[in-house]
Amino acid sequence: MMSIKTPISDEVIEKLHIGDKVLLSGLIYTGRDAVLPRLCDLAVNNRIPDNIKLMGSVIFHTAVSRAGVGPTSSNKLEIEGSMPVLSKYGVKIHLGKGQIDNETVKELERYNSVYAIIPPVTALLNSKTISKEIAGFEDLEMEAMYQLQVVEYPIIIAAAHGESIYGR
Hints:
Blueprint: E1 2-5, H1 10-15, E2 22-25, E3 29-30, H2 35-44, E4 57-60, H3 77-88, E5 91-96, H4 102-110, E6 114-117, H5 121-127, E7 129-136, E8 145-150, E9 159-160, E10 163-164
């Protein structure tokens, strides 16, 4: 497993290959549907604020909330459309989830940038689900109540005995 730290150089990007597992450290930026088009506009018009350093940076396609951070779909028009533009202005890694278009992949190569994913929790949990059937509220379709048979579901206890991993 490779460890890399921001800011990321062109030489580091050249060493990365699909399927590599990477431990990323350092400062990264977040953005999704509303933020990324604005950031593109600022970059194109040479108005990036001094506190944002795009050269060698990572953009994580997420929002930040009290619930935590988790990737949003990178193939949304506003997000995927930002990738070539931001790569041109120095972003080296776009981090999210989901498949992106082949044309976007070519544009990333053009600017020596890469797209990385956070391992999809839904895929992991699906592989640990042996069976599923509707238990109630069938009219709600995918939001109906299901009964699942699972094996080795990975879980983390987040609160017990008056303590929480999120602090107080």
